[in-house]
Amino acid sequence: MQESNPANPPETGSPAAGPSGKEDPNQRYWFHILAQNTPAARNLHATRLVDKAWQQGDRVCVVCDTMQHAEELDDLLWNFSPDAFIPHSVVPDSATTCTDSVGILLCPPVAEDWETVIILSATLPANADRFKRLALVAHNDPNVLNQARSHFKQLRALGIEPRVHDQRKR
């Protein structure tokens, strides 16, 4: 398993080509398991992933479960970099259109609308195999790790073997 540095998150950009030279679909899916056990560490890591994908020109969304969590991410994205800001909006429901490059979603994402999808929610979107790139971020908390295991099993059932970046193994 490959590990990542929290200050420099692993690539969420273009998928890697496999040995045959064709795109390897499993290189589009990543699990990030943090050594820290706090929601704040998870939010910060997700924000770094957002920034990296956005800097690469992707439309990026972060899927979360509650308005409180969305507001925490909103504050973090506004204050993430002292030199710039990441243009984003909170999307409370499927009827709301996000015109910004980054969205914080409280509803399932539509695969055609986003190049990079970051999952912080307890539910993996039903169409997870249709996303161009998908990153799931879990902090070292038993409940969140159980959710991550469930997501991992769901992806495997779809024929996807995600790459795991486990910071706990350092």
Automatic annotation (TrEMBL):
GO BP, one annotated term: positive regulation of DNA-templated DNA replication initiation
Molecular functions per Gene Ontology: DNA binding; DNA-directed DNA polymerase activity
Region (Disordered): 1-23
Signal peptide: none
InterPro entries tied to this protein: DNA_pol3_chi (IPR007459), PolIII_chi_sf (IPR036768)
PANTHER family cross-referenced by the UniProt entry: DNA POLYMERASE III SUBUNIT CHI (PTHR38767)
Annotated protein name in UniProt: DNA polymerase III subunit chi
